[in-house]
Amino acid sequence: MIALDAWRAQARAWLASVAPRFGKEAARGLAPEAHLALGRAYQRAKFEAGFAGINWAPEWHGQGLTPLHKVVFEEEEMPFGMPMGYFGVSLGISVPVVMQMAQDRDWARERVLAALRGDEIWCQLFSEPSGGSDLAGLRTRAEPDGNQWRLNGQKLWTTWAQHSDYGVIVARHDPALPKHKGLTYFWLDMHAPGVTVRPFRLATGDAHVNEVFLDEVRIDDTQRLSPVGGGFAAAMATLMIERYSAADPAGFGPPLEAFVALARVRTIGGRPALDDGRIRSVIARTYAMRSGLDAIRTRAMRMMEAGMEPGPEGALSKLVSVRSRQRLSELAIDLSGALGLAWDQGAWVKDDWVQSWLSAPTMRIAGGADEMLLNTIAERILGLPQDHRPDKGIAFRDVPV
Amino acid sequence: MSILLGEDQVAFGAAAGRLVAARCDTAGLLGLLEPAGRDDRAFWAAAVADGWSAIVVPPAYGGLGLGLVELGQVAQAAGAAPVGMPWLAPGAIVARALLRGDDRAAAQAWLPRLAAGERAALAFAEGCEALPGTPEVRWRQGALRGDKHGVVGGLAAAVALVWAGDGTGPVLALAELDGSVARRGIDSFDNSRLPADLAFGGTAAQVLASGEAAHDLARELMAAWAVVLAFEQLGGAEALLWRARDYAVTRRAFGQPIGAFQSVKHRIAELYGLVEIARANCLHAAACDGTAEFARAAAAARLSATEAYDTAARDCVQVHGGLGTTWEGGLHLHMRRARSLAAECGNTLRWEDWLVDAIAGIAL
User: Fold this and answer.
1) Rounded to a whole number, what is the distance in Å from the CA of B1 to chain A's nearest CA?
2) A181 touches chain B (CB under 8 A)
3) What is the pLDDT of residues B223-236, one digit of tens each?
4) What distance in Å separates the CA atoms of residue B170 and residue B134, rounded to the nearest whole number?
C-alpha cells in the first residue's frame, strides 16, 4: 500500500494540475447548472485519477486504501475550493449505507459506480419540520402494503435533494411503538411518483437545502435497508461512517493569517489595528485554540497510522472551531468599519469574512447543533446523565405534542 | 509535530501520579496555606528520590537525560494535587540554562546539585514586568545588586538564575543565595510557593550569557518554563474537571442528579474542551522543543492551559454550589494555585503579546 507521504505528494500534484479547470477561480460566477456540471466533471476526474472511493474496497470500485489516506486527500483538497459539495452527503453517508445494507448487491454495485463517477447523486432524508436534532421524533409514515410500503410525510433540510437521483430515508412504520423502536430505514427513487422537491434559500442566498414532500410514494420491500424497527440503530451507524473526515481548525472559514493580514491594513483611531491590545488578544487566543485543535487532529492521524482508534476529543473540533469562526468573522467585518459593508456574494467562504459570517449559523446547526454536541460530550465521554426525557418508554403516538 | 506518548512516558507520569496520591492530601495542603514560609519539604524529598529533580539533567551530571515531555508528565501529576512546593519547574529551567549557557565550570558545579534536588529559583521579574527590557538589578565585577520581586521559591532557594544588566545590556547570572541576599517573604494567597522579594547586596554571580544571547536565552527559558507550568495547570484543570463531573453525577436536586441539567452538564462539557485543547497544546509544545516552532507552541500551551485552569477553578466551585466555597472542601487550593501559576511566569497579557509578535513576524 502506498505510504502516506507519497500519497500526500501524489494528491497535491494532481490537485494542483486540475486546479485551473476545477478550482475556486474556475467555479466563480457560474450559473447553477454550469456549476453542477463542473462538479460532476470534477468528480469524474477524481474517479479516473484514482482519488474517489479512496478507502472503499476494490470490489466496490474503491481504491482499497485506509481511512487515513482519505483524510489526507481531503486535507490537501480543502484549500483549492473545488466544486465537491454536491457529493459530500452522497459519497460520505448515503452511498456507504447502500453499500453496506442494500439487499440487491449487484444493483448496489452499479449505484456505487455511478455515484463515484459523479453521474448519480444521493441525498439523506432524515430531518423533518417537527425536528432535526430529535431524529427519533420523526413523523413521516411508512405503512406496510403487501410486499410494499407507502410513504407519507415531509422531510426538511435535505441537502442537494433537487439534484438527487436517490435518497436514503428513515420513516415511522409503527407509531404504537416507543419512538426509537418504530423506525425503519429504506432507500428511495427521488424521481418516483409522489416525491416533490422544493429548494429554499438560506441566509447567504444559496439554495442547497430542500423541502421534500412524500405523497403516497410506493416503495418495494426490497428497498428496505434495515430490519423492520431497526431504523434508528442503522441511522446512528451511518453517522459513524463519517467519523474519519478532515477537520479544519479554522472551522471551514478563513485562516487566522487572513485576519492578521487584515489587521495590518486597518487602523483604529489612526493607530494600527495590529498594535491594538483587543485585536492582539483575539489573535493570540484564536491561535492558541486552533493550534490545540490542530494538535488533536495530528495526534488522531498518528493514532490511526499506528492502528489505534483515535481518542474522543476529535468530537470537539466542529463545536469549537465553527463557533470561533463566527465570532472572528464578526470582528473582521467590524474591524473594517464602513469598508466592511461590502459583500462579494460569489466569494469562496475561506476567502471572505462576510461569506464566512453569513454561513456560520448553518454550520453551527447542521450535522449536530452545538447543544447536541455538548450533550454528546457530556453523556458519551464524561458519563453525565441524559436530560429529562418525557417521551421515553411510551408509545410514540402518546408522546405529548 | 505532535506526539503520542510512548509507554515509558506514560509509565513515568503514572508513577508520579502514584507518588502524589500517596503523599498529598487536602488537610496537609490546607495546613500550608496560612503560615507564610512553609512548604511540603517531605514531599519534595520523596519526589527527588523518585527522580523528579533529575529529569532534564544529562546522565553525565547524575541526571536521567530526559526532556520536556517527561518533565511535563510529572508536572501534570504535581498540578493535580496541587502539590505544596514550587521546586520542580525552577530547578529544571536553571539546569536548562546551564546546559545552554557558556560556563562549563558552572555546569559542572551546579548540575549534579540540581539533579540531587537543590532548590532553585528564577529571578527574572521586576515590578509587574515578567522580563523587564532594562533590568534594574545590576551585575558588576562579579556581583549582583538590586531588587527582584515575587520570586517563586525565593524564601528557601539555594540558587537563583537572575535577569540583570551589566551597564551595556542584559545578562543572565547564576547566584548562590548566601547571606548577602535579603529575602523578604510575601504573605500570599498561595504560601507554599514561598514567594519572596530578593534584595541582592553584592552577591557573587556567574554570567551564563550576556547581550543578545542573554535576551534570546531568557526568552527561550521563559518558553520552557511556561510549558512546564502549563502542564501543572493542565493537571489541575483536569483534576477539577473530574471532580465537577463526579459531583454532578452523585449530587441530586429537584429529583435528579444535577448533571442532568444542561446548565451544569454543558458547563462541564465545555471544561472538557478547554482541558483537551490545553493538553494537545502542552504535548505539542513539549514535542517541538528545539524547533523553530517552540516559541509559538509554548505560548499557545501557556494561554490555553491558563484559560483551562482558571475556568475549571471557577466552574468546579460553581457546580459544587455552597460546598465548593468551604475551607475544608479544599477547592480553593486549586483556585489559588490557578492564579499563582498564572502569575508566576509572565501573565496572560504578556504571553498574548509575545505570541502575536511571533505570529506576525515582528522582531522580538
Assistant:
1) 8
2) no
3) 999 999 999 999 99
4) 7
Distance CA A94, CA A117 (A): 15
Both A232 and A128 in one domain: the answer is: yes
The domain boundary, picked from A59, A83, A107, lies at A83
Question: How far B27 CA sits from the closest chain A CA (Å)?
Answer: 28
Are B300 and A287 inside 8 Å of each other by CB?
yes
**DSSP state at residue A205:** S
Other C-beta atoms closer than 10 Å to the C-beta of B187 total: 10
Between the CA atoms of A345, A346, A351 and A357, what dihedral angle is there, to the nearest 10 degrees? 30
Residue A74 domain-assigned (yes or no): yes
In tens, the pLDDT along B67-105 reads 999 999 999 999 999 999 999 999 999 999 999 987 899
Question: Taking CA atoms, what residue in A is nearest to B249?
Answer: A384
Q: Same structural domain for residues A152 and A260?
A: no
| A-interface mutation test, from B245, B282, B316, B355, most A Cβ less than 10 A away | B355
ipTM (interface pTM)? 0.96
Cα A384 to Cα B268: distance, rounded to the nearest angstrom? 9
If asked whether residues A231 and A269 sit together in one domain, one would say: no
Distance from CA of B171 to the nearest CA of A (A): 29
Could you give all domains of chain B from N- to C-terminal order, each with its CATH number?
A: 7-115 (1.10.540.10), 120-211 (2.40.110.10), 215-360 (1.20.140.10)
Distance CA A225, CA A247 (A): 29
Residue A164 domain boundaries: 123-241
- Inside any domain, residue A376: no
Same domain, A269 and A358: yes
- Neighboring chain B residues of A298 at a CB cutoff of 8 Å: 1-2, 284
Is A168 found in the same domain as A76? no
Cβ–Cβ below 8 Å for B3 and A293: no
Q: Which residues contact A164 (CB under 8 A, 6 or more apart)?
A: A90, A121, A122, A123, A190, A197
